[in-house]
Each structure stands twice: as structure tokens, then as C-alpha cells.
Amino acid sequence: MLSDFPLLTLIIWLPIIFGIAVLATGDDRNASFARWISLTGAILGFLVAIPLYTNFDIATGAMQFVEHRTWFERFNVNYHLGVDGISMPLILLNCFITPLIVVAGWEVIKVRVSQYLGAFLIMSGIVNGVFSSLDAILFYVYWEASLIPMFLIIGIWGGANRVYAAIKFFLYTLLGSLLMLVAFIYLYQASEGSFSIEAYHKLPISMTPQILIFIAFLLAFAVKVPMWPVHTWLPDAHVEAPTGGSVVLAAILLKLGGYGFLRFSLPIVPDASHYLASMMIVLSLIAVVYIGLIALMQADMKKLIAYSSVAHMGFVTLGFFFFNAYGIEGAMVQMISHGFISGAMFLCVGVLYDRLHSRQIADYGGVVNKMPIFAAFFMLFAMANAGLPGTSGFVGEFMVIMSAVQISFWYAFLAATTLIFGAAYTLWMYKRVIFGAVASPAVESLQDISKREFALLAILAIAVLWVGVYPFPLTEVMHTTVEQLLIHIGNSKL
Amino acid sequence: MNFIPPDFAPASSEIFMLIMVCVVMLADLTAGEKKPYLAYLLTQITLLGCTILTYTSFSIESVQTFHGMFVDDSMADTLKLMIYGTVSAVLVYSYSYIADRGMLRGEFFSLILFATLGMMVMISASHFLTLYIGLELLSLALYALVALRRDSVVATEAAMKFFVLGALASGFLLYGMSLVYGATGTLHVSQLTQVIQSGASSKEVLVVGLVFIVAGISFKLSAAPFHMWAPDVYQGAPTAVTLFIGSAPKFAAFGFVMRLLIEGLGEMVSDWQGMLVILAVLSMAVGNIAAIAQSNIKRMLAYSTISHMGFLLLGFISADSNGYSSALFYVIAYVLMTLGTFAAIMLLCRYGFEAEDINDFKGLSKRNSWYAFITMLFMLSLAGIPPMMGFYAKFAVLQAVVNAGFVWLAVVAVLFSLIGAFYYLRIIKLMYFDEPEVTESIESNNDVKILFSANGLAILVLGIFPQALMSLSLFAIQNTL
């Protein structure tokens, strides 16, 4: 392939163009047409992203597939794209999840089909843009634009309390990102007229501004991750979102926050990051332990998985702030793996919800008697969520705990409690939903999963097991980048 | 004494406009009964003619005439061209609204043209008196426009409030100008700077005069704490008139601030900077917080205007061409958004039904998904969400503010715009998440359909490619200062 082929532009805009085409199919009379166009677009979107992996040079930590064009000169803003070992796996994850979401909504979404699918495709393209932007304003535009489709998805196709959840989701995320915008503008002045993220990496900044910038970034990214105590939008949004929305939210949108820490907070303000690391570690540990306990008490399956997402993402932020290779790579693996597992868990709940229209654990029981194949899949994902060795959930958590041991026994000890809590809340929920006697006539009438659902869960199961058994292809691509990042963070910018 | 006639060429478009206003009035007087659309057509022709005149005589250099009382420069021409376009769009949007309500008569159009002429004079003024004459021409026409439905109680009340407070503001301005004249002995914008620089003027008198001038400007801009008239007028006036008041005069207000504060009293930047900071913060606070409590859409948009004027003032605070051009970009974006938003309200109005309540937007996406989509673009843009144009406007202004060293002000501004996002989102919520109360489909003429779509897509396209407008605003400012 030619080296100057605008691959990233294609990866960003192909889904968006397909999304607009899907929107143009109009009302629900053309629903099946809209579905097929979306599936084509989503699969093409994944296929064009594959060269990103196959042509990726693992020997360098520099940006690859770089595209650089002037966007608007007035403020020296450029259409500057590129990926490294941190963003490339996340783009692949996003392109991988998008077709699954289209398929997941295939028969379930019956009203305003074209708008639903169009919104997902457009969002997929926008998220690719977030991961590949190397210009702060370009990044910000994609970052904020991703709110719009998600806002509509939750608000239009969500459950009973959807309006509250949608507006809370939007305003929480907007709060963080607006302060990030001010930080960008400040950096623009400090760097004498540049919005290049790579230029910011090299820019010397004194301690007080570093801390203020760190806090501005923290608010933006912490809300997205979400970290304790700004996580409260997530359970609301998850519970009210349609299945596809929950999957995207958990699998993709939360990763934007984690990515932000690696791309912005750590390299741009390394001294503030070191200075405030203990605070970040404590916040992350609270997420891991306290939110784990909260998850235990949930009566609603989606809420339980949402809280478990917060706890697992706590591991991600924990790994970042140990400043060693195990920690950051572990956190990266955890992000990818959480994308698979949480996506799969929400799909499983979606399968049940489509049949009984209830998310309450108490309404189920004995599902295994009626849906054995589904129960097997659900078992695998529940085990992965609990961090069973051999699944992807184990790899990331294990690496982060290893890195915590190097810093302090107590950090490692507290982090490791997740293995207990995670197992407790996931398996307890599994037991109550799947095992036991058939709970009600409704459960008695359940049909096992269709071929469509089987295909979805099987693909995710393969991914979970593959990363769990052989994570090397994943860690290999990020290794050089992480090494360089660590060297960079090690040097003071004062 | 020999009388040397002044050079009329720089004022050709104003003169043409004045003649045409008389033509519109006469034509309507003689043929208006039978052909009510005649005045509309003539008005559009007038605007087109003015556009051609201004465009062909576009002057990059600053040309003064009428003994230095009138100036033609790139900023004036740019603003005028934008005003013609805006007024023309206003007329297209309002045609069926005013026709349904029996206002399709010469008065409406001639008053609009008079107001437009007032704006043009304001923008081209290089003397405080010219500035004032233009302002009064604009204001008087607007008072009459608001009261055009004389049988409507709210409209008359609004006009009364508008008139009394407007007159008070004019009084403030005049008093301030007279103090400035007392201190410096000149009212020529271009001479003021030299006189103040030379130090021959009394600083105390000047500052007192400045305070009155800034207060007068704030009235006209509807910046808090001088904003009280705006919600009542926006609500009380016929929607077509609100659309007009909310759009084109903002360009004139921008020109007004530029001529008065920046060109005239630019030497006193350290004095007015602090005042503008207070006005800006208050406007953003009052506008955004009060808008949340409104259930009348026009009132809500009035408060939204107040908050946007606060944001606009931020652009002036940095006191350099970077900031002014950001403010100009902000005005352009704001006018485009206002046009579309009020057009959306008028689309919901039917014969004998005024869409006033925000609940009238309920379920719009089910009644007409395309209009709902376009209205959503306007709301997102007003909230400053990229990739809409409103974001770049906010971004440019914030950049100017940070550049001037007011990082805290930028933080305050973004926090208030977060509050603001809530009530714009509420409209999107009503359109998309709620069920419609009436299922009637929305009908409109083709020209409105096309213009409304173009207006909405412009918000998106100019958001994705903002460079052209940004350079235009920079060009307009740089050649003036």
C-alpha cells in the first residue's frame, strides 16, 4: 500500500458517509434496506481498518499513517492525523464493535431504524477521529461531536427515565470538556500559536500551570472514564440506553477517557501527574473497592454491569499512575478486554431483556433450563468479567496488580480485592438469573438464542479467549510506544 | 463663502436606500390595496440594488466624506453586505407570517428599510452625531415595528417599554457624548484619539462620559444589567419583528461599539476594559440562568441573546484586532443562528395560532423530521457544540480572552455556557424525545424551505470549514484599524 494513502481519513469518514446514507433512506418503510446498508458500512469500516494493524511498524514509537493538512490557518489548526501503539488498538476495537452493534439491533429496533443505525455509524467514525487526531482542536471537535449521537440514542430509544439520563450524560461530559478547551487555549498561548499535541508534549511548563492543566484534563477524562466520584451519570445512562447504546458506551466511549490520560495528561503535564499520582491512585482504588461493593447490591442487571464497568475502569486509571510498563500496558490490555467483556455482558442482558422486557434480577431464575446455549456463553463472559485466568479479563488485571506490587504492597492488596468482589457480584448475579428452578411462567416461555445472537456472542467469546490465552499480538504493538511514553514522562518539564 | 459639495459616492448605497424607501411607500400608497406583495418585491429589489452598489464600490481603504462625518471602509462595507443579506432572509422568512396577520402592507417594509438605513449610517459614522442619528433612525423604526399590531395588548406594552427604556439609553449616550465633547472639544472619531493622546483633555470628565457611553451601549446591546427591556420586547413583538430585532441590528451594534469605543475612545482601553468584564460576566450569568426558567420560547431566546451578548463583549476585552475579528465572527455566527431559530418558531405558527410556548416544539421530529434536524443544528450551535459554527465563535472569543491574560474569565465563560447548554438541549429533548401534541404536518412555501435548509446547513458547513469567514472578519477589521 502506498505510504501516503489517507488511510485514517478513510477509516474516519467511511462510516460517517455510510451513516448519512442510512439516514437518507428515510422512514421505517425502508428499514430492511437501512439495515443492510449499515451492515455493509460497518463491515467495510472494519475491513479498511485492518491495514492499520498489518502495516503497523512495531519498532517505532513515533506516529504512523500521519496525515497533515491545513484546516483553518487563522488559529493554525490542522487536520493532523496519526496513530501509535496506544491509539491503534483502540481504533481496531471500535471498528470491531460497530458491526456487532448493527447486528445486535437488527430485529430489536423497530422504530426510526435508519436514525438509530445512522447515529451509530456516524458515532463510530467520530470516535475513530478522536483516537487519531493529533491536533488539539480537531481532537476536541471529534470528542464533543461524539456526544450528539449518543445523546440522541439514549434519549430516543432508551427506557422510561431516558430523558434524565440523556441530559445528565450530556451535561456531565460537557462540563469536563469545556475546561479541557480552556486548557488547550492556554497551551496554544504558551506554545506561541500551536495546537499540535506533539508540540505540547515537548513544551516546558512550570508547576502551577501544570497542576491547573492537569485538573482541567482530569475533569474531562475522569467524567468519561468515569472515575469515582463523577461516575454517577454512567449507571443512569446505561440503564436507560438501548442495548446497542450500552455496548458502545461501555466498550468504546469509556475508553476515550482512558485514552485521554495517555495522550494528554501524562505526557503534557508529567510533573503534575507525578505530583498528583497518589491522589489518582486513591481515587482509582476507591472505584475498584467501593464501586465493587455497590455493584454487589444492585437489583438491576444493567446497573450491576455498569458499576462493574466503573470498577474495571478504575483498574485502568490505577495502572496509568504507577508509571511503569506493566501498569500502562496492563491498563491498555484492560481497556481492550473490557471493551469485549462489557460489550458481551450488555449483549447478554439485552438478549434477556428482548424476551422478558425486564432487567431485574429477581424476575429471572432457572434460565439455564430454557436457554442452555445462552447460559454457556453468559457463563464464559461472567467468568471473564470476574477475571478468570484464560480470559482477557485476567491479563490486564494481573499486569496492573504486578505493577502495583512494585510500588506498594497495600496498593496491590487493595487492587487484588477486585478479584474477590468481581467474582462475587458477577457470579452471584449469574447464579440468581441462570440457575435454580424456573422462576415464573415468563421464564418458562423463553426461547434459546437465535443464530444472529449466537454469531454475535461467539465472535466476542473468541475475542475474549484469544486475548486471554495469547495477548502477545496486542502487547507487541503497544510496547515501543509505551516505553517511549515512560521515558518521556520520566523527564521533568519544569 | 463657496459651497463645496461633498463627495456623495461613498454614501451611494445609503442614498439609493433612502430613495427606494420613498418609492416603496408611494407604490404601496397607490397600488398596495390590489397588489400587497408589491412592497415586498420592491424591498427585495432595493436590498439587491444596495448589495450591488456596496459590492462594486467596496473600499479597502478608508474614505471619508461629508467633512469627516461619514466613512466608508472595509468594515463598513462588510457589515453592510451582511445586513442586506440578513434583512432579505428576514423578509423571506416572515412573508407568510405577516400575510396571515394582515401586516403585509407598506408600513412594515418601509419601516424595515428605514431601520436598515439607520444601521448603515451607524456603521459608516465617523462622528458621534452621525452615529447618534443612525442609532435613532434605527430605534424609532424598531419602536414602530414592535407596535405594528396596535390591537395587541402585549405588543403595545412591549413597544412602550422599548421606547421608554430606549429613550433613556439614548439620553445616557448623548450625555456621555456631551461630556466627551466637553473634555476634548471634538466629536470626530478620528480626532478623538489624538486629542486624548496629547493629554490636553480632563481625564476625570472623560471617564464620567465614558461610563455613560458604556451604559448606553449596554442598553442597545441588551447586556446585563441594562437588559430588562429585551425579554418583554422579544415576547411582545410579532415574531417576524422579533426575528428582525434579534438579527440584523446586532451587526449594527457591533459596528457601533467599534466606532465608539475602539476607534473613538480606544485610548481609554484601560478604563472600559474593566467595565466590559463586569458587563460580560453579568450578562452571561443573568442570561443563562434566567433562560432556564422560561417557558415562553421567545422570552427564552431573549435571555439567550443576553448571554450571547456577554460572550460577544468578551471579544472586545482583549482590545486587539484578534479579539475584534473574533467578536465579528461571533456576531456573524450569532445572526445566522438567530435567523434560523426564529424561522423555526414561525414555521410552527399557523393562521390564528402563535407558537410561543416551548412545548410547541414537542414531537417536531415526528411531524417533520427534516425541520427538526435543522432546528437541532441551530440549538447545538447556540450551545457551542462542535462541529457547529457556534463552537468556533466561542472558541475564537475564548482564545482572544486567554490571549489578553484573562484565563479566569474564560473559565467563567465556559461554566456559564455549560448552564446555557441545558436549555438548548431541552428544545432538542422536546423535539426528539417527546410525543407531539398536535399531529398536523408543517407546511411552508418552497422559498422558506430552501432558505431554512440552507441556513441550517450553513451552520454545519461553516463549522467544518470556518476558515473563509474567519479570514473575512479578520480582513474587515484589520483594514479599518
3D architecture notes:
- The complex is a heterodimer of chains A (494) and B (481).
- With 494 residues, chain A is mainly alpha-helical.
- Chain A has 22 helices and 2 strands.
- Chain A has a two-stranded antiparallel sheet.
- In chain A, β1 (64-72) and β2 (77-83) form a beta hairpin.
- The longest helix of chain A is centred in the C-terminal third of the chain and has 32 residues, at 325-356.
- Chain A is globular, with a radius of gyration of 21 Å.
- The two termini of chain A are 42 Å apart.
- Chain B has 20 helices and 2 strands.
- In chain B, α14 runs antiparallel to α17.
- Chain B is globular.
- Chain A binds chain B through residues 27, 71-75, 115, 137, 140-141, 144-145, 147-148, 151-152, 155-156, 162-163, 166-167, 170-171, 174-175, 178-179, 181-182, 185-186, 188-189, and chain B through 369, 380, 385-387, 391, 395-396, 398-399, 402-403, 407, 410-411, 414-415, 417-418, 421-422, 425-426, 428-429, 432-433, 465-467, 470-471, 474.
Radius of gyration of chain A: 21 Å
What fraction strand of chain A? under 5%
- For this structure, the quaternary state is heterodimer
C-alpha geometry of chain B? globular
Order of helices and strands of chain B: HHEEHHHHHHHHHHHHHHHHHH
How can the largest sheet of chain B be summarized? 2 strands, antiparallel
* Protein chains sharing the most extensive interface: A-B, 34 and 33 residues
Characterize the main sheet of chain A.
Answer: 2 strands, antiparallel
Low-confidence stretches of chain B: none
Proportion of beta-strand residues of chain B: under 5%
Report strand order across the widest sheet of chain A: 1-2
| N-end to C-end Cα span of chain A | 42 Å
Q: Could you tell me the radius of gyration of chain B in angstroms?
A: 22 Å
* Low-confidence residue ranges of chain A: none
Gross morphology of chain A: globular
- Overall structural class of chain B, as computed from helix and strand content, comes to mainly alpha
Helix content of chain B: over 70%
SS-based class of chain A:
mainly alpha
